[in-house]
Design brief:
5 strands; 5 helices; 5-stranded mixed β-sheet; alpha/beta
Length: about 140
């Protein structure tokens, strides 16, 4: 599988896209994220998502459409459960295009694009510190 989905903590999940991504990879990753969001929703918890695309060959047009459709179909759940998303992309052009798309059609959560892991993690750390109540 070219997309690795895993929990990093009780409130933080991660997707890492590596190399060529298949349609089946996208479907599996979305299924795993949907399951994590539904579980959090039942438990009254909020989550953050870290998406690392630094080692990816990118998504096809079809895969980008499937991803957009997923966000539309599950918009209410995403708004309730996902406090923020940090997306890592190496290319300044890719980051700029994604940011421009979000100006036209804002995502259902606070989604920001970064060049480095440290920047993305710092953003999610701040969101978790301000918005998420961790259980003791």
């Amino acid at each position: 599988m070219s997309i690795h989905f895993k929990p990093l903590s009780e409130t933080r999940y991660s997707f890492e896209y590596v190399g060529a991504v298949t349609d089946e990879d996208v479907d599996m990753a979305q299924s795993q994220w949907l399951g994590a969001m539904r579980k959090a929703d039942i438990g009254g918890r909020r989550l953050v998502l870290f998406v690392d695309g630094l080692r990816s060959e990118g998504l096809s047009a079809k895969q980008r459409q499937v991803t957009a459709d997923f966000s539309i179909q599950h918009e209410g759940l995403i708004r309730r459960v996902c406090a923020a998303q940090a997306v890592l992309l190496e290319s300044a052009l890719q980051r700029g295009i994604l940011t421009a798309i979000f100006w036209i059609k804002p995502p259902p959560t606070d989604l920001r694009v970064f060049k480095t892991r440290a920047e993305g993690e710092a953003f999610l750390d701040e969101v978790e510190r301000k918005q998420l109540v961790r259980s003791a």
